[in-house]
Design a protein that fits this description.
13 helices, about 475 residues, alpha+beta, 6-stranded mixed beta sheet
Amino acid sequence: MSATNLDQLLAQQSSIVDMLRNSQLGAYVYPVVAPEFSNWRSEQWAWQHSAVLFDQSHHMVNLYIRGRDAAKLLSDTMINSSKGWTVNKAKQYVPTTPYGHVIGDGIIFWEEAESFTYVGRAPASNWLRYHAATGGYDVEIELDDRSPMRLMGKPAHRKEWRFQIQGPQAWNVIEKLHGRPLEQLKFFNMSTMHIAGHTVRTLRHGMSGAPGLEIWGPYDTQEEIRAAILEAGKEFGLIACGSRAYPSNTLESGWIPSPLPAIYTGEKLKGFREWLGPDSYEATGSIGGSFVSKSIEDYYLNPWELGYGPFVKFDHDFHGREALEAIDPAQQRKKVTLAWNPEDLAKIWASLFNPDGEQYKFFDVPLANYASSNYDRVVDAGGKTVGLSMFTGYSYNEKQGLSLATVDPEIPFGTELRVVWGEENGGTRKTTVEPHKQIEVRAIVSPVPYSRVARETYQGGWRTGR
């Protein structure tokens, strides 16, 4: 009998871990946007040295939340405090389960008195939709789902386009587009600007460590706005960034975007699993990497392990509050950057050209992830697991292989650990996995953000741990 929801699907499995580790979905796809407009090295270089245009129009869910109880729905489901939050301010939204584990995250834009927009990956959006439908809230929900992973020649259309203008020359581009000086609002504050005769909404951002903006507007104006930005940016070295380089930006800036949503077990979450479909993100997503446990709960993470500790505020009731109050933050793993040893990486790449030698798991550049959620073992000199490496790739700016990880709290910066790269027994049945042998890669525990310019200019908080 075919499962009609996630809970039924899980009941049919002998192992939830095996189901997800052998999912046929593959890696997380950034659809529609061209992989490269120039080349990914130049595009990475531009976000630190000139300016880039990021196109975020297709890979994220837009969830519009309107109504008298919209603010209450958000407050009830997020670890963040609502204190001081007003119209024209955005907030990093982090929901946890009743057991205190992270479901996902995204950005909430407070656009009008009773109107919010969530932008991000599906898990947090699904959690909001579920509680809106079952929690008795007076809200209206509108879902504008992300574009399909593979359009196969079909046209793509969203309700809104969403761009970012980032880099050290970004503000010069922005003011040229606007036609006059534009106030640099505080981080995550919202306003408007003018581009090519259109008034567009803006969010003060700093994705590459320098002042920039996220902007959005009706989808049918997308091409006109894009052309105006590219033309205005020519004298400042602005280039468009493709979908190949775009996600690797987080290796320098320090956000772990893809923890496993911690919803597969627990009686208190049964209703949510029954609400989720058998084709949902949670049902079809994949786990990749060398960390293997029989228990799916060993893949769950709390806010401190992902660097969201500064967000946890007990000034309001929310799902997971009681569980989080029982946690000692000082004992939790901490988010770090791991700088991979160049000689060990060279050994991995060299195996591609050695038909008679060991074949190691392919390390793609600039992003080496090969699943929806990535979990590689981080071990000490004695082989003990001391953390998890969760987002992996290469920075042309830093000339360095990097991964974002969570490691035991007592491990200081400068410690050499090892990342176990590749999967056991030649690899799982994922479509993104070829036969290979595991290898231990030396890696130095380093700060978050790794990029010096980002580390010195980002607002203190979840990225920096300050």
